[in-house]
Structures are given as C-alpha cells and as structure tokens.
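**User:** Hello, beginner here. Are you able to go through the protein record under this note? It all follows right here:
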Amino acid sequence: MASEKVQTFTDGNFDDATKTGVVLVDFWAEWCGPCRRLAPTVDQIAADFDGRAVVGKLDVDANPNVAAKFQIRGIPTILIFKNGELADTVVGLASKEDLSGRLEQQLQ
C-alpha cells in the first residue's frame, strides 16, 4: 500500500489537486507488474519532497476520464504538473534519481 505521504487522485479531485504547485502523478493499475515495482520509488520521492511537492497516484482502471484526457496509453506513466500545466512526462520505469531530478527542475 502507498505511503501516507502519497495522495490518491481520482477523476473527481484531479483538477483541484494539480492546479497549484508542483505535483507528480503516478498513473498505475493493480494488475501492472512494472507499476508495482515503481511504487516504492514513488513512496520514497513522496517522503523526500514532503512539503515541497505533492506526490499522488491515479488508478487508470478506476479513473478512466483523467487517463483518457492525458492520453495515457502505457503504464506506469508519471506526469509532473506545475501550477496546473503539464511540465514533464515519463513513460515506463524510472529511477528515483531521474524522477527526483525532474521534480527539482520544476521546483526552481
């Protein structure tokens, strides 16, 4: 299960949750093996960036509207938003160092 620092995003709360600040969103599904492998990395990033950036997960099966809006075709996909605008995209597994570096870029 996700860390308490990782928020759960849904079709209903996504727009409000991503409209201010820097937000990393992990698009995933329960059946996705690579998504499960990425989960501990997302948890670590949430802890490392606590208070500086919001980190959350969106289950693409339970929330198809947001997934369709951003044309998520493969998971895991990480989207990073800055003040409501899509700032960066990572498709597939990524290292903690890569994702942390991308978040740091948006925080500057």
About this structure: The chain has one domain: 6-107.
